[in-house]
Amino acid sequence: MLNRQGRPTAPGAGAANGHATFTGNRALQQEEALIFEFGRTDVTGVDLDEPAPVADRLGGLGRKEPIGLPGLSEPEAMRHYVRLSQKNYGIDTGLFPLGSCTMKHNPRLNEKMARLPGFADVHPLQPVSTVQGALALMDELAHWLKELTGMPAVTLSPKAGAHGELAGMAAIKAAIAARGEADTRKVVLVPDSAHGTNPATAALIGFTVKPVPAREDGTVDPAEVAKRAGPDTAAIMLTNPNTCGLFERDVVEIARVIHDAGGYFYCDGANFNAIVGKARPGDLGVDAMHINLHKTFSTPHGGGGPGAGPVVLSQRLAAFAPLPHVRLDEGRFSLVEHPSASDQSPLGRLTAFHGQMGMFVRALAFMLSHGAEGLKQASEDAVLNANYVRASLADVMSLPFGNRPCMHEVLFDDTWLKGTGVTTLDFAKALIDEGYHPMTVYFPLVVHGAMLIEPTESESKASLDLFIATLRDLAFAVRDGDTARFTGAPYHAPRRRLDETRAARQPVLRWTPPAPVPEAAE
């Protein structure tokens, strides 16, 4: 079977076209064994002299068995990791439509700036007199974060969004304790459409979580908030724009309800990329909000880090910002690292040092290269791109809240798949065969079989048109009953579909050599 461009789409077409190969390779798509399968544990890639005897200071805790790491020559090691890199998918490979994750292009200018001597080599334990430029950069980044959010204070030290949530909620907890209400204000309101880290963060630091349902249109009703707000309310944790890709139109009223009840308004800033230059959270009544520099301001995202999640704070919470923070005295910068040196009431430290310098450099480079109008246009283009995807697919995929404008991401559900034998997961796996990383699936939980797509501002119209055409072709295949294209997908990936339920419940975390297979006698 051929698709509309004449390319094969039949199940297993990539493997079936032509003969099977002895190596498992398919031309430039090379099969790659685990490093333990071809490396030898009895050799190393370098020659090391036997060390001289030393006194054992490990108290009996020294290793008693060989470490078991495979030895490789330099060419073997290089080829292994290059071939692995060719199996990876990233924003430099193609469109990365993960909704809620804002996988945007990382401008190479940012990378060049982060590699400048003095930034790339800075060490957190250097004398302050030798890092004045780094501290000046942190101070300027803090200034623009406050300017863009309309907030008077910011802490740069949190390492990622969830860590930022912890910082913001810890500041709220400290403020409540300072008011003498620690024993009474223990409830945090969390909408059903929130990121999962929101209730987890609140519970982690001792709050009780109370959910707030969404309206039929996917937004939060201030009347529902008012029903749940009271003298036991510590805060609400609200994402705006929310995870359904919609702006909370009653956000100012929600803030008023929470403040009237004596609580604080924590805003999840994961979706700030949609409103930078358009709306300032501080003007909406927000008391604390984390900012994912790796999302909104283009620093590298994923791969385990490094991340950065600065938190901006209102005047009500500014005094409780965690240490350290930058101070300018008579033209010299310093780091305030101890409560005794602060004229505020810091809640303490959340991390050993000041944050991730490379992320600060990249984020500030992004801000300065774009300027105010450029940052505003980035937000506008992100929203425009998401709405272009929505309008182009509305006739073949179902929209849970009606065909109405969205913000920076568009949410589809699985209503259009019912009765076809194809699930959201099947559809996502088929997208891998088309050369795309799938969109976010099954999130947010308020929508059944969710498919959340966020193209960001990085994508050109040509890029979006091809992505849209691909989704339409897949949708037509579903309607034509070509279920085999989906239920076994992906067919062309280096590995076929996993049993994800079994993998989660019975993970195999250690490689063991397979039993030798005896050869038949001649």
From TrEMBL:
Name of the protein this chain belongs to: glycine dehydrogenase (aminomethyl-transferring)
Superkingdom: Bacteria
GO CC annotation, single: glycine cleavage complex
One Pfam family per UniProt: GcvP2_C
Reaction catalyzed: N(6)-[(R)-lipoyl]-L-lysyl-[glycine-cleavage complex H protein] + glycine + H(+) = N(6)-[(R)-S(8)-aminomethyldihydrolipoyl]-L-lysyl-[glycine-cleavage complex H protein] + CO2
PANTHER family documented for this protein: GLYCINE DEHYDROGENASE (DECARBOXYLATING), MITOCHONDRIAL, GLYCINE DEHYDROGENASE, DECARBOXYLATING
Residue ranges occupied by any Glycine dehydrogenase C-terminal domain in the UniProt entry: 378-475
Biased composition (Pro residues): 513-522
Region (Disordered): 1-20, 502-522
Example GO BP: glycine decarboxylation via glycine cleavage system
